[in-house]
Amino acid sequence: xxxxxxxxxxxxxxxxxxxKFMLAPMTNTQxxxxxxxxxxxxxxxxxxxxxxxxxxxxxxxxxxxxGKGFPGQLGIFSDKHIAGHQRLTAAIKAYGxxxxxxxxxxxMRSPAELLQEKPVCSSDxxxxxxxxxxxxxxxxxxxxxxxxxxxxxxxxxxxxxIHGAHGYILTQFLSAKxxxxxxxxxxxxxxxxxxxxxxxxxxxxxxxxAFLLGVRLSPxxxxxxxxxxxxxxxxxxxxxxIDFLDISLWDSFKQPEExxxxxxxxxxxxxxxDFKKVLLTVAGNIKGGEAVQKVLDAGVDFVTIGHSGIxxxxxxxxVLEDPTFSPTPTPVSKAYLRKEGLGENFITYMxxxxxxxxxxxxxx
Length: 364
Ligand SMILES: Cc1cc2nc3c(=O)[nH]c(=O)nc-3n(C[C@H](O)[C@H](O)[C@H](O)COP(=O)(O)O)c2cc1C
Hints:
The chain is of the alpha/beta class. The chain has a single domain, classed as TIM Barrel, CATH 3.20.20.70. It contains 13 helices and 12 strands. The longest helix has 20 residues, at 135-154. Flavin mononucleotide is lined by residues 24-27, 59-60, 102, 163, 165-166, 216, 248, 250, 283-286, 305-308, 353. Residues 15-319 form the NADH:flavin oxidoreductase/NADH oxidase N-terminal domain. One of its GO terms (molecular function) is oxidoreductase activity.
């Protein structure tokens, strides 16, 4: 029987998502430079809850000041951020959506102009001008991820997602190419993944069994090895601390880049795992209703929607009304994006994505 995108799903922690649509974590560069929530960031996310995303994820929110990766990034590294997060969670929960904060640290990918100091990394990186963390600093980083989760809980979030994807600091630890440490956080996969596992176990311990806990991983690029990422997934499932895995594929319908792994699709590499109670979501190129159904029928528990959620704040409603719904063609005008609840900084940020925003003359 076909899985219905509109029916609810239950997470192991007890949380219920009213349908199978999650808004992807999306950096929108429209909060204040000290990490405080802005009205633009609030409005953009609130509109997605009004549009019936069953789970609204925040952008990557940094857990340390030195982990800032973007201008206007929403922060969660200080108690001064709690009041803003409380406003956000209350606004989203009013629509019956779950609300989850993505916990992030950019590591060596922090642009130098955003920091007053050198960016940090698992080990020194000349290319990025980053310095390797001391053992004590790694433990502080772990504790700051856990502290941010506690802050998220105090702010009213249903849970957190640990951002272990896209080349940011947890990826910098996971990568054998980037991580040259010789202590317990470097060397074997077990050591390179230690920080992630300590954070996950620590968040579960500190926030309790009823707190929604997910991990985002990406299996390609940024020094990742697909088989290693699958091994990390298996261990996350076996340890029983997480509710869901969010695998960022960039294209859910493609073959792995690496020849040696091309005997099945990238998606099949993950759907074949034994997830036990853990739920699976994937992100990447799930554009319209047919793609949603295809991914669910392939064995994914719920879908994660990026671009189409920018184009249509009510993408879930559109797909539930019409299973063949396709998003509006791009590029779109700035006026269109304003109508869909994007502030000016977010619109400017979206001009970086090829072919998404019309040239200025047409888009006023
Ligand atoms: C504007 C924009 C910002 C993004 N910011 C984040 C982020 O903060 N954290 C993250 O894990 N992924 C981020 N991503 C990746 C998305 O979460 C998603 O995985 C990706 O866009 C693929 O899904 P899509 O094809 O439906 O857009 C971002 C993507 C876009 C387009």
